[in-house]
Structures are given as structure tokens and as C-alpha cells.
Amino acid sequence: MFSGTLTALITPFRNGEVDVEALEGLVEFQIQQGVSGLVPCGTTGETPCLSEEEDRLVVETVVRVAGGRVPVIAGTGSNSTDMAIRYTRMAEEAGADGSLQVAPYYNKPTQEGLYRHFATIAENTSLPIILYNIPSRTGVTISAETTARLAEIPNIVGTKEATHSMDLASDLRRLCGEEFCILSGDDSLTLPIMALGGRGVISVASNVAPAAVSQLTQALLEGDYERGRELHYELLPLFRALFIETNPIPVKTAASLLGLCSDEMRLPMQPMRGENLRRLQEVMEEKGHLLPTPEEV
After folding, report:
1. 44 carries a ligand binding annotation
2. Is 87 a residue of the active site?
3. 104 preceded by cis ω (within 30°)?
4. What distance in Å separates the CA atoms of residue 244 and residue 146, rounded to the nearest whole number?
5. Phi/psi class of residue 39: alpha, beta or left (left: φ > 0; alpha: ψ in -120 to 50)?
6. Which GO cellular component terms are attached (predicted)?
7. Quick check: is 160 catalytic?
8. pTM
9. Which residue in 87, 105, 108, 132 is the catalytic one?
């Protein structure tokens, strides 16, 4: 259902408010650069610091500007099942094409608790749901066995995998069947996950290098692994530089350097300074051929 490069959109701010004009520009830029989909209000979008009203504004803006040209999968997860349902219904009303549901953070539910959480959300929406497995942020891993149980629910259609475990990715493909959509949750793991049967990536790097990341996933979807490896190694220094500090600090800083939006963030996030900023600038200069030209921004 979903494949290719889906951008985990940053949320631009100006003077403490969501910068709607800049967000509109980001959406248009992404689509013109060839991405396959957009994922607003995820971790990269600083959603923990967005109010419910701002969350709605962001999703509605992205849906409106995308205009059906690419699917919009809204991040609507929560560590509260009731709140996840509320946000998912909001996204459905706003016209989103899917929902990204992170594993409940801080609570650390059991596998049965995870199953019931996601199953209950699925019962309360008609949107296709992509699970989000990122134990480094949530403190809990959705097992392959639990995912396989969830895959039997018709509108749970895939998972975003950010566990760094190729064994788990292999078990997902083995247990969940060919129709279940596995997406990489880390840019640097897109190649190995797609080699194991994944269909693309929910990408941080495509905020600033959408065309190049799209070329990578397209090559891999077409089975051109020689070209895929070439692009992977070409992009790898940029992938790593964009995680030199906690996401989304580097990618939002990079977007600012390209003139896509300001580098304004909400506490506890702060724009990069010092040696890490210099390193990011060096990598962006070195990999400038992978980045958009000023005319494209």
C-alpha cells in the first residue's frame, strides 16, 4: 500500500508559532522533488511539543497542499490508547490517508498490552495503520510475533522498523507475509531492510535530500541493487551527520541552512552550535550534489 520514500516532515516554527507558509512550501518542495508520501507529526515533526490544535493545523495543511498527489500518513500515536484514538479520528477527519502509531512510551506495556493497544485503535478508525517500532525512544519493542498477530487485523497494514535488528526484520517478513508493508525507520538501514523485503523508508534525510533518497528507494524497488548500494554509500555520510545530535535537531538545522525554513525549535530541543554544526556544514558542502539547488528550494 505504501512504498518508496515517505518524508518524516519537520514542523517549521516562527516566533513560537507553526509557520504555515513555510510548511506549505516544504510540502510542495517535497512533492516536486519526487517523494512517494509525507508523514507529518512524527518525532521529526516535534509532535511531543505540539498542542492538539497545532497537530490538527499541521495535518490539515499537509493534506490540503498535497491535494491527493501523494499519500499523507499522520503521526497520531500516544502512550494513552484513548488519546491515540482521538488523534487518529482527528487525522481521519482532516483527510489523512493513513496513521503512524508509535508503541506506547514510558508505560512499557507487555506484548499483550501492545496488541490490545493497537487492536483497539484499529477498531476505532478506518485508516490504514503503520506501526512504529522504536525501542530507543519508547523503552519497549514490538516483537515480530506480536506484529504478526496485529497483521491479521485488516487495517493494520505495515510497520516502520527502527530497531536496528535485521533478525527482527527477517522475522517480520517471514511471519507477516508478502502483503504486509515493512518500512525502514532509519535512513542508514534502508538498503538492508529493503534487501530483506522492505518496501521503502520513512525518511529524515529526505527533508533535505528528497530526490536522492527517492532515487535510492526506487532503485531498490526495481531490484537494481548495484545502483542502490552506490547511492547508499554516497548518502551514508549525510545520513550519519543528520543524527550527530538527537533528531530533529540536525535535520532542522540543515533545512535552515538550505533556506527551507528557520531553525527555530521548541524546548527541550535547541538548534546546533559549535563543532557539531561545523561538521554538519562540512558534510553538506561535501555532498552538495545530493542536495537541492537554490532554484529548487
Report:
1. yes
2. no
3. no
4. 32
5. beta
6. cytosol
7. yes
8. 0.96
9. 132
